[in-house]
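Notes from the 1:1 (GR / supervisor)

We went over the backlog. Supervisor wanted to see one worked example end to end before approving the batch request, so GR pasted a single chain during the call. The sequence is below; no edits were made to it. Supervisor asked that the structure be written out right there so they could see what the output format looks like.
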Amino acid sequence: GIFRSHTVRTLHSHSLAPTSSSETMMSRTQNMAQYGFIVALAKSLPDAGRDHIPGQLALIAHRQEIGMSKTIIESPSDLYDLIGTTLGPSPSMEITQERINQFADATGDHQWIHIDAERAAKGPFGTTIAHGYLTMSLAAKFMPEIIEVRGIAMGVNYGTEKTRFPSPVTVGSKLSATGTVVSVEEASGGIKMVLRIVMQAEGAEKPACIVDAISVYFPA
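Structure output shown during the call:
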């Protein structure tokens, strides 16, 4: 998933993509298949052999080997190529009691299920849980870990659409996130993207939070 859109352009420049003037969904799928083949080839070669591979592809292979899964695109207009694509996952993050307490202080929500470990141990969750809005707010942390849009003057948080909390986040949980590009369109001189961010605790059957985050990127 790294440099996915940029890689499509690279494939075009090396005559690996279809030559039709109007790019269809099928051609994009073919691009992705070719991309995967080239990355696999790059990873199978010794370091010396990679000198003969386009630099961007060699970097992709290296990043995949070390477990990085951040998608980087060079222009907000390239977001159109990512519609329907799931990005990530992000690195995991532990939800500590200290963080929960800090959020309680910041918002004034000191309900016992969040901050009273002794009472919470006898409660419905068996321990303290993170505030739903604390979990939701972590979208701001995970999003730049799974996608980076370059070539912009600024990016603006435009809000959110539907948000759900299918399962609680107990203290000590390790959360990570994926993001699916739901839609991309022009808006107010920029490019608006809706990214469905799914946050899930390690070992959990259901996601902790699903939020459709809206961002607007203004080209540089």
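Supervisor's comment: The beta strands are 71-73, 86-87, 93-94, 147-149, 152-164, 174-187, 190-201, 209-219.
Batch request approved.
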